[in-house]
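Appendix C. Worked example: arginine kinase
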Amino acid sequence: NVDKEVMEQMEEGFKKLAESKSKSLLKKHLTKEIFEKLKAKTTPSFNSTLLHCISSGVCNHDSGVGLYAPDPEAYKVFADLFDPVIEEYHKCFKKTDKQPATAFGKGADFENLDPDGHFIVSTRVRCGRAVKGYPFNPCLTEADYLELESKICGAVTSLTGEYKGKYMPLTGMDKCLQEQLIEDHYLFKEGDRFLASAGASRFWPTGRGIFLNSAKNFLVWCNEEDHIRIISMEKGGDLGKVYDRMVGGVEALGKQLQFNRDERLGFLTFCPTNLGTSIRASVHIKLPNLMCDPDEMKKLADKYRLQIRGTSGEHSEAKGGVHDISNQRRMGLTEYEIIKEMHDGIKGLIEAECKAR
Ligand code: ADP
Ligand code: CIR
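Step 2, the predicted output written as structure tokens:
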């Protein structure tokens, strides 16, 4: 049952969003009809409401998407809203479509995207995982955060070989070290308003932390947006090598933790943009000629199904002409095919940059 106060907040938020100029996928797909159909529903295990799902987009009209799943069941209970958003974000993943089985393939198939080092500063590949048996951020208790952290910390600190490293909890972390790790692109930022209003910052910094291997090219984020983010990154454009390192880490962790994967949606994540493979493969890249015309650049990126972000990640500015360009969709293709889509797109952009000289 949805209580009166929540219902009033929901009605108010919906009205304001509907009247706004927001370009979010939430605004586009939360029609009056869908709102009325879903507003009294709750998820069976956690009692999550439609308000949990839409609060980020309702508070932040500048959201690109604006929708989050408070718990795994929300994708089914509120499917009338999630499905069209998923379909549009992931470029036509229809409600009758099914995420293919995991297939990582071999990174060695991909050549270095920038062997002479003219364009690419660094390459990063990440994926997200949810641990079976737990909801997402808005429904986690303080005890859940600590329990999850202890499980994840146990798994990462038992990694061996090139993955061997150290777990650093955010609680008690030296401020200078935290800022340096953020600036160096290792650690997630603090105070993201999109996440905060989605209910993802409760009990912060409890249960949050980062694992870093000794070579500083393999990382695991604990309890930020997702329970787990597994990341491989290094300078230069050797996508295959970076990808293979991430895959090795995911497989090693999968032997110790049970990941939550849905038959249709693939790996379950808090944000619907990360479902499916949950992979975002990005380069920090300089394309000065193409970037002279941002509208043309955006069109070209769309053609290759690539997304452009700023240098410090989503919702940030591009510093020194360096942009973060990655695959936009994460669903409907295997892991290998997602990497190939990004690889081919970046290759296309570099060719276009050379022609524009
Ligand atoms: P994600 O959704 O992958 O977590 P964000 O956009 O929040 O991504 O970025 C997380 C961090 O990763 C930021 O500090 C960002 O600058 C960094 N990052 C992303 N791609 C690269 C890259 N290719 N090289 C170096 N750092 C990167
Ligand atoms: C937004 O809607 O802008 C944030 N909630 C982030 C959405 C995820 N970003 C993306 O495009 N992959």
